[in-house]
């Protein structure tokens, strides 16, 4: 028997506006940071707005690899609320990661930034989000994070 081919299909883009970084400090496993999520939008097969609460909880490892865990929600244009837990990592050349920390622009193609979003909702029209695995390709900008969400088919 042959296993199914692993493929992905673009579904939508989440643009999450972010607030000022809160640095907790060195915790023994890295530098803990909290980045508030203050709004944004969803466009594509699903359209809506990112709700103005939630945060990305990050740990920056000594080699500058960043573990990410964002928790937030969005509301679709037809009124469904979708909770998101998005885990991932960001890594690249140290000098470019330092520029991102300072809010300076960096070509997203030079930074490895991938996520695995999981969705929860009670709205029947969007239950399919809970029945599939998704991966995201992301880019960090000074005031926002943009995530192209792809369904694993």
TrEMBL record:
Highest taxon in the source lineage: Bacteria
Family designation: Belongs to the UPF0311 family.
PANTHER family xrefs: UPF0311 PROTEIN BLR7842
Name of the molecule in the record: UPF0311 protein L6637_13530
Taxonomy of the source species: Bacteria, Pseudomonadati, Pseudomonadota, Alphaproteobacteria, Hyphomicrobiales
């Amino acid at each position: 028997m042959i296993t199914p081919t692993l493929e992905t299909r673009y579904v939508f883009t989440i643009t999450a506006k972010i607030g000022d970084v809160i640095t907790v400090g060195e915790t023994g496993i890295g530098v803990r940071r909290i980045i508030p999520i203050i709004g944004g939008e969803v466009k594509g097969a699903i359209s809506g707005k990112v709700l103005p609460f939630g945060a990305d909880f990050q740990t920056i490892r000594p080699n500058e690899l960043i573990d990410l865990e964002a928790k937030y929600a969005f509301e679709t244009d037809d009124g469904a609320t979708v909770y998101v837990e998005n885990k991932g990592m960001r890594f690249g050349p140290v000098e470019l990661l330092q520029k991102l920390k300072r809010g300076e622009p960096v070509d997203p193609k030079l930074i490895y930034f991938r996520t695995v979003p999981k969705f929860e909702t009670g709205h029947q029209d969007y239950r399919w989000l809970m029945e599939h695995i998704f991966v995201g390709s992301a880019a960090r900008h000074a005031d926002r994070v943009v995530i192209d969400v792809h369904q694993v088919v």
